[in-house]
Amino acid sequence: xxxSTDARRSILCRGWWPRPAARWAVAWLAATAIGxxxxxxxxxxxxxxxxTVEGNSETGFRxxxxxxxxxxxxxxxxxxxxxxxxxxGNAVRTWHLASVEPPVKGKSFLDRAQEHGLAVTVGIWLxxxxxxxxxxxxxxxxxxRAMVExxxxxxxxxxxxxxxxxxxxxxxxxxxxxxxxxWREVGHLAALIKRLDPNHPVMTVVANxxxxxxAAITAHAPAIDILGVNAYAGAAGIGAALRDHGWQKPYCVxxxxxxxxxxxxxxxxxxxxxxxxxxKAAIYNASTKAILADTARGGSADRPPRCLxxxxxxxxxxxxxxxxxxGMLLPSGEKTLVVDAMTDAWTGxxxxxxxxxxxxHDVPLAGRRLEPGQTVAVEVTYKDPEGDQLTYEWEVxxxxxxxxxxxxxxxxxxxxxxxxxxxxxxxxxxVTLPATPxxxxxxxxxxxxHGSGCSDNWPFFVNP
Length: 464
Description:
19 strands, single chain, TIM Barrel, 8-stranded parallel beta barrel
């Protein structure tokens, strides 16, 4: 859709446009002379991006950015943007406006994204009832509306803006998520954003889908342009689920990765078993290719595409059950095998330098209950595709007791000193079990010295 600036330029420009100080006056005079409505008179031309959704549920959908087709090859997170661009990523999703504002070396996150050719889905956080927000409290609702308006006005004209990400799982991570009160307000806010900024679509983000939730969004938030879905074990099947449930608008997969701690087997002391680094890479790769098959990049005439792309989680590292469960980068910053797998999914080729791959492990303490102070010999075998010399870092960490839901921040559990001895540069070590009873994990982090690495862990329990 052409915006008011485009219309004004087509009337006034024809190859000429005055200096900024004179623009408003010229525009006003010309508009008055030919009877243009006041809504087409603006003080300054629009310098940002123009993003639209084209198509329908019968012919398929695609995203256009400045008139060019754009399939989202994205991540959630604000870490190393240079690395992301080099690996074939083209977009970033954030959750809070605050994450795009603090300058780094004098440049905002949006400026740095633009420098690396990355588009940004700008997240605007909405209140969650489980955190105490009341959608039936007029004062809280009005404050949130004012916050949303200020956020949009602040960055809407930046050329890196791709989509507005309105909220994240504010329907709650459990239950049916069909609250009319919540979705009516989301619909109001979506309409507000579109009035303030007609140049970028509005997406709201939910935790997985079900018929009741989708029906509530359709009924109460018709101004939403795109549905963002966070899914993990079922990410590859989101497109089919949305079709089965009758969703008629385009969608993005806005978070995906390995099965979450809530979706995997547990030990008998309820410690979730984290997939191996190699398994996680395979899952990201397969999920990404499956999701992109429902986009304009991979759609077909007999299955018109409805997906606009996807954002893998997480471009960085965070504590969620463990310090490595969802991190595509190590806490120390190195890229993992997951990043290599994403590079292949995005570009069809693997990077020149690849992360070490776990081939074998002999970790007798894994999944077992053992005695305090017992010593256990462990050994892992990693292969580096380029034959780089690998280094090994071993650590025993207490099992997390600060488990939250919905991705809420968790405290990292303490490391236990003095447990590792006889560690060598071939992947062997001796573990002396802690004296204090309880759950623990043995971590090994392997690095190639060239910016790549990986980490694996095994839970165990020390008996009373």
